[in-house]
Design goal:
heterodimer; A: alpha/beta; Rossmann fold; two-stranded antiparallel sheet; 9 strands; about 60% helix; elongated; B: mainly beta; SH3 type barrels; 2 helices; about 15% helix; globular
Chain lengths: ~625, ~80
């Protein structure tokens, strides 16, 4: 019996039993919660206080079905329990979180944890759901049989928290001998027999199988015909909201930004400082901030789909399509998340059991058009049709862009998967379909707010810095000429463009566009900022440019010989480049970490950038040969 | 040779989970095959009752109040007997 106070507590349990919900309730933090197996892919740590006011650290481990470590996130959980996790010791107390509605299935893991010889407490979560399904639980009997404290709770409603915290103190529950192992040779059979014995007295299930509400919903949502219709409808709604509905708040931001720019220019006398603030900073950062509503909406929908439990159904439906790309339905969530941002997408690949499938998914994830590409698409697509933003034709083109990126990703995945060969150990598709639940709005909103704040933070740091740098490069060294065009040619930016021009000319771009592309290699959305700053030199009045302004400006841009710089063909070429190019430093860093080597990250970067260049080249050159301009 | 009187219960018909009818309740008899460890971890253990909810490329079954989608290869390794 341990006399010392527990300092480190680990939460262990099957996937999707509410470990993270419990963790958030204990620590008051707002880790992302989804109704989907494998939302927690890394160990999270937080602090809580015992009823006596002692501080303890809590680890939220990724879900696992057993301690046999079948996939990477299970391995992480096993390491944490053995104290092999970097910087962590062996936990003083393990809280086995179980979903009481499927207690029989989850007890093997609890027994395995008990066999490790660590002090244990069982958090019998979601007792409300279990009771509704007709399961008769007896926590007292369960506790007697297992020899550990059993706390019935409803973590999402905060019920049972105090009782659980009561166990976080000395003396810790005694470690009991694994008596069930004595009678059998085969430890699996031994556990099974013991569990049968426990369930006989402590968890009685009604004999008749009852069709739950979730089962009934699933008969439609997983139906071979209606299921696909619903799936298409949901995806369409998500995209429609992002591309149409988001226009309204985007208009407010643009108007506010214009007014702010005007107001600032009345305060500061015309000159370099006014130019820096109004053109460089407000124009540059504003050109990116305007996409905030779309990013918020995309994360909101993904959060909603995960939280309600639909994401697992989508993975189930998509399994047959993913199989054509040599992937499984489990690759759907990572790839779909990558439409928002490749970083959480790459992180979510940890739930994929097959290591090779996981590498392939990581490799192609950045081709799922992420939200950072949207600013660029929104700038270019309306120009292509020479009309205002928001028509259905543009929506169609955008849809095509997404399809092109996705289809290319699938083709490459298939080729790469073939080259990597089969896994050493066969992996089969298996997925838990959680019951449908009401979305946990508070967590979704907090998560969306986090992502939005991260985006604004990026605009306030990287993009602000680059905006100032770009403004300086295009302003200095100063020429004596009054003509903005000559000034640009004289500036550092103009000189860089001159050097780049031969490289990008075969793609249909001049040095100015080339410079903008070059500056967007750290983060793609900087392209808009660069274009605004580079082409704004011709701007003389103090009006703040919105994208409409940038478009007006660049539509007038010409080659030195007077031909228009942007033709439909060069715009398509530019779009193709942005669909394929890997221009995101943070993603490369995450890929290197997740794949375990920089080789993959660098290979991916070189491959995607090279592919983008070649694809653009083909589009432009073949297009010209066919007589397009 | 006269027919022996059948006294023992009829040998039960064993199916793989793939062969079980959609919508029927079955009891798991034997879990055997290369992935049986994984199946056991998930709760596919002898004597547990399962309802097969749908078939196809991957099948869905309900086991102890949880719905699981598993591939046909996995389902092939689960032998079941119908429950009356």
């Amino acid at each position: 019996m341990s006399e010392s106070l527990p300092a480190l507590i680990a939460l262990v349990g099957n996937p999707n039993v509410g470990k993270t919900t419990l963790f958030n309730a204990l620590t008051g933090s707002s880790q992302k919660v989804g109704n989907y197996a494998g939302v927690t892919v890394a160990v999270k740590s937080g602090e809580t206080y015992t009823p006596h006011g002692n501080k303890v650290r809590v680890l939220d481990l990724p879900g696992c079905y057993s301690l046999n470590a079948n996939s990477l996130d299970e391995q992480v959980a096993v390491d944490a329990l053995n104290g092999q996790l970097k910087g962590e010791s062996v936990p003083d107390l393990v809280v086995c979180v179980v979903d009481s509605s499927s207690l029989e299935r989850q007890l093997p893991l609890t027994l395995q944890v008990l066999e490790l010889g660590l002090p244990c407490v069982m958090a019998l979560n979601m007792v409300d759901v279990a009771e509704k399904s007709g399961l008769r639980l007896d926590p007292v009997k369960l506790s007697e049989e297992l020899g550990i404290p059993v706390i019935p709770m409803q973590a999402n409603a905060g019920k049972g928290l105090v009782q659980l915290k009561q166990t976080f103190r000395a003396p810790l529950p005694p470690v009991r001998e694994s008596s069930w192992l004595h009678h059998h040779e085969d430890s699996d059979k031994a556990r099974r027999a013991f569990i049968d014995q426990i369930c006989e007295v402590a968890a009685r299930r009604p004999d008749a199988h009852q069709l739950t509400v979730s089962d009934r919903i699933d008969t439609y949502l997983l139906h071979p015909v209606y299921g696909w219709l619903a799936f298409a409808g949901i995806l369409f709604t998500v995209f429609w909201a992002i591309f149409s509905f988001a226009k309204i708040p985007m208009g407010w931001i643009e108007a506010g930004q214009g007014a702010f720019g005007n107001w600032v220019s009345t305060l500061i006398p015309a000159g370099d400082l006014q130019s820096l603030i109004v053109d460089g900073i407000i124009g540059g950062v504003g050109g990116v901030i305007v996409f905030l509503p779309q990013i918020v909406l995309l994360f909101l929908f993904i959060g909603l789909l995960e939280s309600s439990g639909y994401m697992a159904r989508a993975a189930f439906l998509m399994d047959s399509i993913m199989a054509k790309a040599g992937l499984s339905g489990k690759a759907f969530l990572p790839l779909f998340s990558s439409y928002a941002c490749a970083i959480p997408g790459v992180m979510a690949t940890r739930t994929i059991d097959s290591p090779k499938e996981r590498l392939v998914t990581i490799f192609v994830a950045p081709w799922m058009s992420c939200s950072a590409r949207l600013p660029v698409y929104f700038l270019i697509v309306p120009m292509l049709l020479s009309e205002k933003e928001g028509s259905w034709k543009q929506a169609l083109i955008l849809f095509g862009i997404y399809i092109l990126g996705t289809a290319s990703a699938f083709v490459i995945a298939r080729l790469l998967r073939g080259r990597l060969g089969p896994d050493d150990k066969p992996n089969h598709f298996l997925l838990e379909l959680p019951p449908y639940r009401k979305p946990q709005w508070s967590y979704i909103f907090r998560h969306v707010a986090d992502r939005a704040w991260a985006f604004v933070g990026k605009a306030g740091t990287i993009i602000l810095g680059l905006s100032i740098l770009l403004w300086a490069l295009s302003t200095y060294p100063k020429s004596d000429s009054e003509s903005p065009t000559e000034q640009l040619e004289h500036s550092a930016m103009g000189r860089i463009g001159f050097v780049i021009e031969p490289v990008v000319k075969p793609l249909g771009f001049d040095g100015r566009v080339g410079t903008s592309i070059l500056t967007s290699f750290a983060a793609r959305e900087v392209f808009n900022t660069s274009m605004a700053i580079i082409f704004n030199v011709e701007e003389t009045d103090d009006e703040v440019e919105t994208r409409i302004h940038i478009r007006e400006k660049i539509a007038q841009a010409k080659w030195p010989d007077g031909r228009p710089l942007f033709t439909p063909l060069s715009l398509v070429s530019l779009l193709v480049f942005y669909i394929y190019a890997m221009q995101c430093l943070p993603t490369s860093a995450v890929v290197a970490r997740e794949s375990g080597s920089w080789k993959w990250a660098i290979g991916q970067f070189l491959f995607m950038s090279g592919f983008a260049y070649v694809a653009s080249l083909i589009v432009f050159q073949v297009g010209r040969m066919l007589g397009f301009s | 040779m006269s027919h022996a009187v059948v006294t023992a219960p009829k040998p039960e018909s064993r199916l793989t989970l793939n062969q079980a009818r959609v919508g029927s309740d079955v009891q798991i008899r034997i879990v055997d095959g290369p992935a049986c460890q994984r199946l056991r971890d998930l709760g596919f253990c002898e004597n547990l009752q399962v309802r097969k909810l749908s078939g196809g490329r991957n099948l869905i079954c309900s086991i102890c109040g949880t719905r699981l989608a598993i591939s046909r290869e996995l389902a092939e390794q689960v032998l079941v007997a119908p429950v009356a």
